[in-house]
Design brief:
By secondary structure, the chain is mainly beta. It is about 15% helix and about 35% strand. The strands form 5 sheets. Strands 6-5-4-1-7 form a 5-stranded antiparallel beta sheet, with no helix packed on it. A 4-stranded antiparallel beta sheet has the order 9-10-15-14. The protein has a two-stranded antiparallel ribbon with strand order 2-3.
Length: about 170
């Protein structure tokens, strides 16, 4: 009976342990530019593969959670709060965002496509403002505009991207 209890406890511990670590691995996206070292800067919107997250003192990283991740074939560490899990959707996917400098303002651009077919979504008859909300510092921002794709059937991102434009430089948005 004692051996059965030990076996059951071990299996339970292993299952619970794997559930906890499963949420801390996988694909994540950087929410801001991250300076890893003097030589390496991770651009905002970069996709990385989390290998694990550990709890550390807040003197090590501000959130107290240190992520180890793979990016471009190398392994790095950074504050886990600087990343978000991408929203997975069975029907739609987004290409990695691109940031553009428009002189006095900036734009964030991406292409939305159907996951199964790979075809880009046609926004020609859609008001995108009803689906997009821009926040900075927890407050909704209204001083932006949305540029629709030039040609949704194009395989070139310069034609298939839609852009949220008129954003202030050096400002974090969500």
């Amino acid at each position: 009976m004692r051996n059965f209890f030990i076996l059951l406890s071990s299996i339970t511990f292993l299952l619970i342990g794997s559930l906890v670590s499963a949420s801390q691995t996988g694909t994540f996206i950087s929410i801001d530019e991250i300076e890893i070292s003097e030589d390496v800067t991770l651009p905002a919107g970069s996709t990385v593969e989390f290998l694990g997250v550990i709890d550390v003192l807040t003197t090590v990283v501000g959130s107290g959670r240190l992520a180890t991740f793979q990016y471009n074939g190398s392994i790095y560490n950074a504050d886990a709060s600087l990343f978000e899990e991408p929203v997975e959707d069975e029907y739609f996917s987004l290409l990695s965002p691109r940031i553009k400098d428009n002189g006095s303002s900036a734009s964030i651009c991406t292409t939305l496509y159907f996951s199964r077919s790979g075809n880009n979504v046609d926004f020609s008859n859609t008001d995108l403002s009803q689906f997009i909300e821009v926040k900075s510092g927890g407050k909704i921002i209204n001083s932006y505009s949305i540029l629709k794709p030039k040609d949704h059937t194009s395989s070139y991102r310069s034609n298939s991207d839609f852009c949220v434009q008129g954003l202030a430089h050096s400002t974090s948005y969500k």
